[in-house]
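Session log. Operator J.P. requested a structure for one protein chain; no other inputs attached. Running the standard single-chain path with token output.
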Amino acid sequence: MHIPDGLMAPAVSALGWLIAIVFLAISVKLLNRKLDDRQITLMAVLASGIFVAQMLNFPIGGGTTGHLVGAALASIILGPLAGMLIITVILIIQALVFGDGGILSMGLNILNMAIVCSLVAWYTYRVFPAKYRTVGIFAAAWASVFIAAAACSLELAFSYSLSGGAYGISAGIAFPAMMASHALIGIGEAIITTGVIAYLARVSPKMLKLPKITFISPRKEVVADA
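Structure written below.
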């Protein structure tokens, strides 16, 4: 899902940066007022753990592999705003150190994998009542990847249309390719996320009770055990 430089029309890349900066600025402002030491420490631990986990790829068929995005995991544990910042830091390191995703297109990558993934994961998870938390975690992780892939496909198609085919990928190619592969990648994401949170619920249930901070309700929000 990482978009490289040179693929997107400059105007689309600039729009991605603009949207990403607005969301991240609001997130930083809210988190700066509400985070405590426990949450900050856990953010650092999650960022390092997800970064390492993303190095491990799983096969999805046809020679294609997927890997954990981690936005659902971070968002369910600490809330969507913390999830956005955690994944953003990871994406910046990946782009600067490993060349995974471009610099000019980083705004779009942040928008898709940090912002869209985190928001979709959190609000999908919150739809499910407490007795269906495990199902909610699975659905949230899968939906986060699938919807982010749809957003990426839309951006590719929009760039193609805007530039008259000079940039991006046509909708007829982008949507089938992205949605089919990420429907499967989302299953891997869901299995890993559900397994990790189930493990944490057994060994460190207090971690899952840490306050969550959201856009809609900027107060600290406590969520029941997963």
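Operator note: The longest strand covers residues 57-61.
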